[in-house]
Every structure is written in structure tokens, then in C-alpha cells.
Amino acid sequence: MTTLQHIIDGKNVTGTSETLFDIYDPSTGKTTKKIKGASANDVQKAVKIANEKFTSWSQVTPSKRAQIMFNYRDLIIKNTDELAKLISQEHGKTFADAKGEVGRGLEIVEYCTAINNHLKSDFTADVSTGIDSHNVRQPLGVCAGIVPFNFPAMVPMWMYPVAISCGNTFVLKLSEKVPSCGLRLTELMQEAGLPAGVLNTIVGDKEAVDEILTNPLVRAVSFVGSTPVGEYIYQEGSRHNKRVQALCGAKNHMIVMPDADLEQSTDAIIGAAYGSAGERCMAISVVVAVGDETADQLIESLAPKIKSLNIGAYDEPNVEMGPVISKESQEKILSYIESGIDDGAELKVDGRSATEKDGFFIGGCLFDKVTPNMSIYTDEIFGPVLSIVRVSTYDEALALVNDHEYGNGTAIFTRDGDTARHFTSNVKVGMVGVNIPIPVPVAMHSFGGWKRSLFGGSSIHGMEGVRFYTQLKTVTSRWPSGIRKGAQFHFKSGKDV
Fold first, then answer.
1. Do residues 204 and 173 lie in contact, with contact meaning Cβ atoms separated by under 8 Å?
2. Domain range summary for the chain, segments of one domain joined by +
């Protein structure tokens, strides 16, 4: 059985925590690898190394940093199949889905190859007579990332390529459930020419997280995961004077208007609700059908497609949906299904028979006549369970979305431009799709929700990421020109001559 190690200062290091993590293949339920967790002392060592390397790395020119990102891009492309296989083996998602994830992470690396452009400054001549002003964005120091299990490649690449390209050093804390891909990506980063110690990658639990949050050398923390944990990280990190961006839970609604293209809507729902077994923070878990006829047509179209989903391991032919991540997740999802039935929702498609397979499988489930007081509506289930809520009007649908505590992603399917425009202007959600079910922004834009889906106020990657990982410095300068006016005691402005 393979035993994994952490990577600190470019070296493989065995953790010194008391905890030994088992890593499972979710399609079989069997342990395939182990790793001894990182202790607080291990995190301290990683942070210390990163801090020691910061000065020299921050003085490397942005062009040189960009060249390393170009090298990294080429290595990721070359090793995409290997990376995707590592994801599928530990997460359970299909191979095609895993390759797609690597591709979306790659887009961020490609964005970072243009870091010169993203860091360019503004200059204003003669803000007052003989006085010029300009600003620069400078790196912070040691930054850290705490990432979830559901995107072992993409979410880490939302963080460290941007931070490192901006001149920071980085400590990455991987999920203990899916560490292999993140560790391999770190190796490729070093192969691309990144100096040892600029990126340090560890695997751990709350002990490791708490050391990151309290260590005075860590300047900024990025997090993606559940809302309770994200809120804790935001509060603790902020209390210890760190910048924090915490991207958290979701309950994403998709409104289907009566004029929507039924076939397009149905196909979109299938992929958005059941792709990656629903283990996506941008998954559609609620369809808001405007009108009973719309709801009835959707169910008639959705039900046979959900029942025919090909469920299996990533390496089985034509598989469309894999297992969920763990036995605990499977049991949690089953409990929500029971709760939905007990609360009076109608289970139109019951996927629980898939639990008879080896591993942590559960088939696609579809509930109708779900109401906002039910836990299957209010909570993020993080599994292949879709709820249909019936409303009479567009205004009711919009209010339903806006009243939910989460505001991560949403979508509307309609042929009417006025309705779509009103929705995009008035919905209280951070990422919005129009006839697009999963509106994840591409690399040059930024990812982030509203309300209890985001703590810290800063979205991730794109220019928001560059701003988060840098601090603004403004320089106002005057050079002697032979003009002497004597001492002046008033606060000068651009109107002074």
C-alpha cells in the first residue's frame, strides 16, 4: 500500500501528527493509500521556510515568474491524463469530468502567464506642479490555501498560481481525502523551475488549519468549503489580523420559465444536478418551475433520463456518474432523502438501489412538490438529489431565490430577454447564468458568491485574486528643479500651481 508524504522546502517529509489518514477508492470502498497528517509543528516548519524564501522570490521579476508559469502550463498539459486518473481514483468522479477539472485549473495558470499585465501600475504626471504620482501592487508575504475534496486540482490552482505569480510564497493544505493530485501538481511546479520552498504542500486536519490561522507569519488565507468551516476560518483568521477569502456553501436555484426550451432545460438540469454526483458548490440542486404545466413537463422529461444514468467506477465504459466521496457522505445523503419523504415531498425517482453496489454509490434522486420549509430545500445536501419547487409567477421564483441564505450561483432558462435582464439585475446571487446552468466564471473573471456563500468580501482568481494577494502602494514624488517657493504649510491638491 502506498504511503504518501508532504512536500516542504522541495523535499518529501513524513508528517508528525498522531493521525494516520486512510485514503479510499470510493468506487470500491477500499483503502488504497495512507498519509500521516501534518502536525502544528510541521505547519510551522512549512511557514518558516516559506517566510525565509519570500524576500528572494518577491525580487524575481514578474517576467521570470511568468516563464515558470509557461513551463508549468506545458507540464500540466503533458500530464493531464495522469492527474485526472489520480482525481478519479480518490474522488470517484468520471475520467472525463476529472480531465475537465484539470482543464479549468489550467486556465488560471494561463492567466498567470500574463502577470506582467495584471500587475501594471497607474502613473499620473503633474498632480501638482512638478509632482507626479504612481501606484504599484506588491506581494504580501506568506499566503496559505485550505482546499476541499471535491476539486483536487482546480481549486488549489485557483489559489497558489495567482499568489506565487504576484511574488508571494505559499503553504497549501490539501484535503486528507484526495491528496495525490495536489501533491503531484506541487512536484510539477518544482519541475517547472519554481525554487524549493516557495510552494509547500501539506495534508492535515483541524490541527494544521488552526496553526495556519494563528501563525503570525501567514498574511493571507484562502478557503473553499462548507459554510460552518468557512465562517470559522474567516473569524479566526481575521481575529489574527489576516486577510481571508472564504468561499462557502450553496443552494443553487435554476428557474425554468414556461417559454423555456424544454429539451435544452432538461439536458442542462441533468448535467448540472447529477454531474460529479452533485458534489459541486455550483451544482443545481433546486429547480423552480414557473407554472404546474412547466413542472409536469420537466418531470416527464427528466425522470427517464435520471433513471437511465450509467452509474459506476471511473474506468467503466460509458459511465456518467460515479460514487460520492465517503461512507459518511452516502449516509448523510440517505438521511436527507428520508427527511424529504417524511416532510411530504414526492420522490419521483428513487436512486437508493445503487447503494447495493460496492463502494459509496447512490443513484440520482428527484423530488417534486418541495417547499421552502423542508431540509432538502434549505440545506446543502452535496449529493445527487434534485428538488423541484412549484411557483405560479416569475416574481415568486425571484423572491424564492433571494430569500435563501446562500447566494452562490443561480440560473434562469427563458427565451424572453426582458425577463432574463430583470433577473440578472435583481437576483441577489454572485454568479448568474442565462440559459447556462453552471455559470462558473472563466479565469480572467472572478469566482465568488454573496450572502453566506462568501466571507471576507473577496472573490477568487482573476483580478480579484491579484488584488487579494497584493497590497497597494502609492508613491508621490517631486525632484528638485531649481524652483524655490519656501515652506508651505497647507495640504496641496491638484489645483495648486
1. yes
2. 2-248+453-474, 252-434
Nearest to 9 by CA among 278, 213, 201: 201
Catalytic residue (choose from 112, 181, 248, 281): 281
* Residue 143 annotated as catalytic: no
Q: Indicate if the pLDDT at residue 8 is higher than 70.
A: yes
Give tens-digit pLDDT for 256-314.
999 999 999 999 999 999 999 999 999 999 999 999 999 999 999 999 999 999 999 99
Mean per-residue pLDDT over the chain, rounded: 96
**Predicted confidence (pLDDT) per residue in 388-400, tens digit:** 999 999 999 999 9
Lowest mean per-residue pLDDT among 183-187, 420-424, 486-490: 486-490
- How far apart CA 378 and CA 227 sit, in angstroms, is 13
Banded pLDDT at 480 (limits 50, 70, 90): confident
Q: Do domains 2-248+453-474 and 252-434 have the same CATH topology?
A: no
Of the chain, the percentage scoring pLDDT greater than 90 comes to 95
Mean pLDDT within 33-45:
98
Q: Which residue has the cell 449516509?
A: 331
Residues 6+ apart with CB under 8 A from 460: 158, 159, 222, 224, 245, 247, 446, 447, 448, 468
Closest CA to 307 of 352, 255, 272, 346: 352
Q: Quote the cell numbers at residue 464.
A: 480579484
pTM of the model: 0.94
- Pick the range with the lowest mean pLDDT from 4-8, 93-97, 102-106, 488-492: 488-492
At the topology level, CATH places domain 252-434 in: Aldehyde Dehydrogenase; Chain A, domain 2 (3.40.309)
Mean pLDDT score, 134-151: 97
User: What's domain 2-248+453-474's architecture?
Assistant: 3-Layer(aba) Sandwich (3.40)
Task: Map grid coordinates 483580478 to a residue.
Answer: 463
